[in-house]
Protein 1
Amino acid sequence: MPDGSKECVDITSYPIFDEHDEVRYMGESLRRIDTEDNLSNEGLIGDSNAFLKSVQEAKLLAAGDLPVLLSGESGVGKERFASYIHNRSSRSGGPFVALDCGGLAETLFESELFGHEAGAFTGAVKTKKGLFEIADGGTLFLDEIGELSLAMQAKLLRVLETGEFRRVGGTTTLRSNVRLVSATNRDLKDMVHKKFFRNDLYYRLAGHTVGLPPLRDRKEDIPQLACYFIRKLCKTNMISPSALQELKEYNYPGNLRELKYVIELATLKAGKKNIQASHLPENILAHNRDPQEQSRQYNRRHTDRDQQAENAQSETPARPRGKTGTHGDGSMIDDFVLGVPTSDVLGALQMHNGSRRRAARQLGITERKLYRLLNRYRDLGIAIPKPYQ
């Protein structure tokens, strides 16, 4: 930088081909990395439009100090989004305190949120601070707020309106300055209509709502998420294309939480080997074998494939096609091309999100050789996943 400050950049290398389709020389491009907005550090992984739209909305709301409601199915990552909002707000130096309202007994509600004095009830042997007191100056995240009873909702509303509360068994009025971020997997507006949720509390919470997409609506993020979970487990496994295809065809009623469990189980089964489709849980494989589901996914897959073919024809010259690089069931053939197993090369690209530089380093080969390998795969007709071409 002209002022002497440092910047973080991502350097991407790419081949420049001559008229004979041989690599003439290597080009490079630089992309500035915004270290303050590195989503992977927050555990927010994905590049799909649906996901990035939610991230952008959360980022905009983080700049303010009004309550935020996160709406989405169980397991979509609501607490991570709440933490993301806190870390980008003016309260980032204060505490971030989370509470799962779904697992909170009504008899403990006041004690948990407002605290209690010693002797307030049987078992209260000493004074305890409540979460509103602990989160003072920061953010209080109430997950599954739709599970609160009407009585609990009334007590919460009073604190939000006045900022004041008393500990259970106490006489001193305390004040708390917190930003409330709440989350639900239920339709609160419908609950208001059915008299299960207070209208006044709903409008105080839901003025700024961020909808979080289920995993089935952002399946293009699954390869990146799978590799992220593997790295979090400190594993070195790679995922075969057939296993990735199975993962992408499943609908994940448990969303990210379920995918994380699937990856944990698959790495356990695979040991030190690459993750194959056979290492995935039987419920995923059985779901994908369902004839009606297979028919729907076949139509979607071939529609996408036709569109990709049209795009490829308009962007690149035709290449000779030869034998396929996959078995009939979609699993990779472990051919050796230029002395390197094909499955290792494609697996390394998947593990490193398409970064050829890092993939080459893992494989112990030069980037130039990696480009030669990819060109050779094309000549042989071996399918290369589109993001890594």
Protein 2
Amino acid sequence: MSASPFHDLKLEKLFPPSKALLVEAAPPRPAVEERRLFIVDEDGGHRPQPLAQGPFDSLHGGVIGGLLANKAEALAAEHGLGTPIAAHIQFLRPIKAEHRLTATAEIAVPGRRLNLVDAFIEADDGLRAEARFTFARDLPAPVPVEQAPAPALIHPDHLPEIVPPLMPPDPWFKDALEWRSDGTTVWMRPRVELGPPGHILPRIIATADWAAGISRPDGWSRPKVMGFPNSAITINLWRRPVGEWIGLTPSSRWNAGGFGLAQGAISDEAGDLGHAVLPVILLPFPERQKSAPTA
């Protein structure tokens, strides 16, 4: 039996310990005053809030992808373009908390069945992120389709919540999601509004973008790289999600060339839902300065 991909996740204790091991609970975090990812100004500009922050000095990829997806899905709903079945999001430059953002979407390729929508995020100094979304209009399948029975699983409501004993002092995007796990799949559902109720992609992107961080190959106890940001994320879905929980079963591979790949199976309470792939760039720790020789 192969080891769990999370067996070395020790620093943050992302998964709860076994019942035989007692761990002191983390102190309660002060209440988050602002429960929004963005404040939207009258002219449509978006100002990031603390919950939009990622683990580094920039917004989380799940937040950026969610904003792009919300613009695309709103446009698709307005024109009856169908159900989102694919997304490719490219993070061009870091987006900082002080940036004021303009997000737009446009129909790139209209079609009878498939429709492509492009979305963009700009700051004052230019383009920061872009995405292409594929929408498909529903039509009856030309051949009979037998749906596989839903797998027997413990509903996420009945799984232990992941409460890490070590937390950053300030709120960030992880606090915008509720986390639960059975030790193999991580389940997430939003604690704050990620988009209009009818939108599909924002909460899927919010979950899938954690694939690299959850499954880092070097482990959390003795990390060999300082960071591993994903330059993009690609998601493919074969049906609409069911329920409010999204599951992620991730894995990662790195190579000596300084880059790698994270991926994750996406699921919901009805079973398999789709897949995500994230190319990652490995960032080395800064070299320590050698002490000057003493006389």
Protein 3
Amino acid sequence: MAPRRSHKKSRDGCLKCKKRRIKCDEVHPRCGNCIKHAIECDFSLPPEERAVLSLRHKLRQSPDRSGASSSPSAGSPPLNLPSPSPSHLQPSPGPSHSLDPHNAHRSVANVTDPLLYAAEAKQTWAQNGLPPLSPALSSTSPFLASGQVALRPFQNAHQIQESLNLFDLSLMHQWSVSTSDTLSNNKSIQDLWRYQIPAQLAVHHPFLMHSLLAVSALHLHTTENKGNNYIEIAARHQEHAVRGMAACLAHISRENCDALVVSSCLVVIYSFVSSRNDGASGSIASWVPLIRGVHEILKQAWNWVTQGPLSPLIRQYELSSTNEGLDSETEEVLNNLYQLCHNRSLPGSEELSDTAISTAYFSAIVDLRKSFATVNNWEHIIGSIFVWPITVSDKFVELLVERRPRALIIFIHYCALFTIVEEFWWTKGSALFELRLCEMCLSDEWKDPWISWPKQRILKRDMERKVNVGQPPDGQGQR
């Protein structure tokens, strides 16, 4: 008897050959058997769809050790697998249903196998494009005005389902045990972020829940060296947060004002990280219009917000102005800045003939002195730092967006102050990033001596920070 011809054993064949129990030649994109029988080969399908089909096939087989068929045992219910495009993976009709406790079982309880759920969810996100932006995003609100605020997500952001899934629970856990503590150094405000905001506000306002999860995903990506998929996850949640906020901004009320204020604060934090990811293509001070947008919301709902649970968060910006915190060097530098407002021998002095422009520069310097003088209280450092971009005039912000040299120089001095809050993961490197962008817009005649002092302070802080974590300072190696 002739010896039996040997063959290579493999489990990588297509599913059609596996079902028919025949040898697959594993040729891509269609194996020989599928071509011969003129049937579709799963090798030609996208990886996400192949993963779903493979999981379904394995779960349906499930043979026991005795070689019995895969029929369910008498004591257990039959395996009820969801279809490749299950209804519970589709976006809900509107954001108001995404956290409805009566609908919550659709996103978690009906999932028989978490791996299958994850694969199908990935397939659904890959197939569905983002819906068109809401008309509310082009509203005249200062917070969302076109050309003033760039609420763009990271690139390559895809559709995310409205209902929360199992992975969102891990992001919520990250928020509760870690991220909530990193947004302030004031204990009462940390507790507010950890307990009241998720439990009392986010559960009733889906756009705020999406904001929490977006920042939580960014935190994991930034501090835990997670992969780029966390950036994409953050972008998906951010997209839904912005859409939900846009719908509510036209109708600010006692019921939604707290959620809008908190969510807009989180948009600012998101912007700090996303702008640095944009690199040199980013806009100078892109977050300034955003934080001013928070102030616009507060102006409309001040009495409601200050009498509610967010009072500690808002009151940190009510700081007394005093010059006791100014050392002689800082005071001399800031006094020298006033020359930008009246010295006609400097380049571009013709703009000072416009009283609105010269006043905008002068007021910005006055407010900057106040901020430098109130940074001694570490528990209120957030308020001390972020009050300046809120109090400067609209005219100054306009000049900054236009990249006027005098506005850029004043802003660079603010960045020197900003280094104080770079203890937080979401602000690290922001001052140096803004300095580099501003330097590209300034001619040499403006760089020395006008930005020498703030630049030295920013570079020193960057060196200290990177030495502490074992990285080379800027300009001395890979960032």
